Please model this.
Amino acid sequence: MAKTLFVTFFIGLSLNICHAQKQNYLENPMYASLSKPSILSTHPFGILVSRIQGNFKFKPYQKFCFSINLESGNVWGTPIKTYIPNSLEVRNEVRKHEWHQAQYYFDEETLDATSYELQVDGVIKGLRIKSSINLGNHQELNIGFRMFTLTNGKLPFSFFTSDDFIESFHKNIAGGKDPFDRGTFGHNKAKIKYIDRHGNSLNLENNDIVFGGVESSYYLYPKKLSTDTFSANFGTHLGINLSKYNTSLDLGISLNTLKIIKVNNLSYFQIGLGIGALRKNLVDLKKHNLELGTNNYLGHLETAFTYNFISKKNTKHTFGFDYYLQTSLNKRDEINYAIPIRHPNAHNSWGHGVTNLYKNNNYWSFFYSFTRKVITTVYLQQDFEVNNNPDIQTGVNITFFIS
Model:
């Protein structure tokens, strides 16, 4: 009897394994594509322009695809005013001093210079909605929009992204007591103030809403570049910025690749790599748009790595991380002759809100995705270099398909 039961169990298990091995899940683009959410940060300037991110699909989805992305990011920077001398002679004199010392060698009252002011505090919550349409012949069109609101980030509506949680983490685990002067200026406040060097201004308070704009992307997946485990696509991008602070057209291009490394028929690794460039404000649709950096072009590099396995009922589980790098918003050499002025109440990291506008912008995202008939993804994003991205950003993405 025991022998009969063992033989029956062994035959059943063997048939089940053979069935799983015969089924090639990677023929389905929902399984073959890298399941990641929108990882664009809620940068105070970035939400007002169209930015490009990696498109790590193996090929276009067969069905109409609809994606909803919710995000929450804590942004912070002490109030700071920065002067840019007009005279080449004065600029050369400023170059002799470190940026944090330059203010002590020049008189604000008599300095011939342009200036800009920046203050950032709050939790930016974003909504991104996107649809993907298969055009046939290995082509795809994406159309979506983005909108944001500034909040004070109080519990329970913001947990990981609240000031209280972040400063508790700094105090008890890493960073020390009030390393960025949040406590000095007060927790749970909401204010973004920016006056550019032309006098145009942005002023956001608690619960203010910004409609960022509409974005469209066209992707071509050349068949000649595709194999069973490799795919590439080329993208062109058009963004229409519609906020009252920046009404303009952006235009960009991108190249994305995806490599699949099989472990067996039920588990595999994926490596995504994407590069691209964006010409922001290619066409200004109104006068006096806010100057969101002195660099007209933004380049990006993105790489993602995932481990995937197929469990019972054909469910795909994805664990992954993503690294995103964007070129600086301001021309890098300008920091060498800029004169930032410290706010009298700021002492710790008082200049990073300005100095990091001159550095490449980068951050890491860690995500888990659950794919069956619907793709559900949650993520945590960390700005390890404190370069004006959210200190912490969290989000959830839901992607579903319509026949």
Confidence is low (pLDDT under 50) at residues 1-21. The first strand starts at residue 64 and ends at 85. The radius of gyration is 24 Å. Helices lie at 2-22, 29-32, 88-94, 163-172, 182-185, 352-355.
